Amino acid sequence: MKITDIRTSEFSVPLRTPFKTALRTVTAIHDVLVTVTTDDGRHGYGEAPPTAPITGETIGSIRCAVEEFIRPALLGREIEDLDGTMHVLHTAILHNTSAKAAVDMAIYDLYAQELGVPLYRLLGGSKTELETDLTISVNSPEEMAADSLTAVGRGFRILKIKVGLQPELDLARIQAVRKAVGPKIAIRVDANQGWSPAQAVRIIRGMEDAGLTLDLVEQPVKAADLDGMAYVRRNVSTSILADESVFSSVDAMAVIQKGAADFLNIKLMKTGGIYGALQICSIAESCGVTCMVGCMLESSLAVSAAAHLAAGKRIITRADLDGPGLCSANPYLGGPQFLENRIIMNENPGLGILPKWVDETEKMQ
């Protein structure tokens, strides 16, 4: 099964509510769809969001990377030669991890289709259902409390609370959320690099002293400041999750060696796709460090690929795969079922997902 074409297009989906973090505010998903076609007429699909504050990529740079560098390098490559094809993909251009991720997941989609199995079973198949949190954007304490109650009303039992914008309000934000949702809802706090190490220790200790019972705090300091994050981890009781600090297996090892985090957050858009994510999983397994799988502002396509990874690997014990839950519509058919906080894996081959406009075209033929 040889690659005969790779194409890109764009699509947009409005969000239910604006997505606000310490890094940016977004009102709609506007992502790149990648379609990989093979000589037997199969199609594999991938998705890449432009997340310039984190990966440095834009819509234009993603499409350029795929069309002008990755496509020429991969044409004629055999899908069955997965390692060789992935080597070519990841050496066709430096960086551009989201562009690579979209092509990577499309190739894995095709590879699992060829074998006739859902991708998660190919990756280990340890789970058939996942539970995800839902992100609460950073706003006033009162608005965040109201948004949290709405999320709980939708069935979510784990909330990921964005902070780091106006750090002086962050303790009040988490206090308001905890008071609104009660003690049984798990709370994860994500600072998106918004605190200094000293601020992080002060704010997290304040939350601990207030009895707010946090599941974890994600990326409290700048991504490159592993010494600062290790300082935070040594001086608080709450678990620390490394996110923006971990793009590669080399980064993962550095975080572990520094003692900078209790958990690693794997995102396909940082790792360049499933191939790189599996390398991080291997290091985490060897070091006994459990992982979370997260997502950027992605639709059900890219989040489906991340869900297959999470369902396939035992070392992944947490899921932050709320992209579909943030969207006001779903432009795809099939794949895992996203039932608010529950993700139920599909049993049809590959990712099992299809753009709606492709399905409608096939029905007309």
Automatic annotation (TrEMBL):
GO molecular-function terms, A-Z: magnesium ion binding; racemase and epimerase activity, acting on amino acids and derivatives
Active site residues per record: K162, K267
Cofactor or coenzyme needed: Mg(2+)
Pfam annotation, one family: MR_MLE_C
Residue numbers binding Mg(2+): D190, E218, D243
Keywords recorded for this protein, A-Z: Isomerase, Magnesium, Metal-binding
GO biological process: peptide metabolic process
Superkingdom of origin: Bacteria
Record has Calcium as a keyword: no
Residues noted as binding substrate in the record, renumbered to the chain: R24, T135, K160, C295, L297, D320, D322
Family annotation (InterPro entries): Dipeptide_epimerase, Enolase-like_C_sf, Enolase-like_N, Enolase_C-like, Mandelate_racemase_C, Mandelate_racemase_N_dom
Co-factor: note: Binds 1 Mg(2+) ion per subunit.
E.C. number(s) listed in UniProt: 5.1.1.-
Domain Mandelate racemase/muconate lactonizing enzyme C-terminal intervals: 141-239
EC supergroup of this enzyme: isomerase
Similarity annotation: Belongs to the mandelate racemase/muconate lactonizing enzyme family.
PANTHER family cross-referenced by the UniProt entry: O-SUCCINYLBENZOATE SYNTHASE, O-SUCCINYLBENZOATE SYNTHASE-RELATED
Protein name: Dipeptide epimerase
Organism listed in the record: Caproicibacterium amylolyticum
